[in-house]
Amino acid sequence: MTSAVPTIETERLCLRGWRNEDAEPLAALFQDEDTPRFLGGSGSYPQAWRTAATEAGHWVLRGYGAWAVEQRESHIFVGCVGIWHPGEWPEQELSWHVVPSQRSRGFATEAAIASRRYAYETLGMTTLVSYIAPENAPSIRVAERLGCERDGEVDLSGKTRLVFRHPSPQAAQ
Questions:
Q1: What are phi and psi of 2, to 5 degrees?
Q2: pLDDT confidence band for 173 (50 / 70 / 90)
Q3: Contact at 8 Å (CB) between 127 and 168?
Q4: pTM listed for this prediction
Q5: I need a surface site. Which of 37, 123, 141, 171 has the fewest CB within 10 A?
Q6: H/E/C letters for each residue in 83-105?
Q7: What are all long-range contacts of 82-86, with beta carbons under 8 Å and residues at least 24 apart?
């Protein structure tokens, strides 16, 4: 495997590899009052740093992972989006997490489309899912905008998650 993380640019965003300085703005995600319950509890700067390191390490172990996402023009950190597949996950998941100050701008959808295209066209994946907490209405709306369909439920680490199946590579184009 390689640790090289490709950079992808969209109209407004840059999906790039992780940097040490990403931990500070990522900590805002963990300190948001709503987000921690979907990500496994609240956190701090040290937790955010470990998360960034885990995301970077995923690229080394799997050859793919989540990108740090920033606005192209301003370089403001937006969040992280990409393919997540820890050992116990049944399938590769397309996940998105946007810091509170950058939400409701369509960034999750824009970055997820670019990430899904990379998974299908570059990695040759033929299916992706997104696991979403039933009460996470904003993420469910993103999944719907991405053309996902409900495909049952799964237990992940003792928590029930809805399974949203992404369109096939042919249907997603």
A1: -120, 155
A2: low
A3: yes
A4: 0.90
A5: 171
A6: EECCCCCCCCEEEEEECHHHCCC
A7: 82/15, 82/55, 82/115, 83/115, 83/119, 83/123, 83/125, 83/128, 84/58, 85/58, 86/58
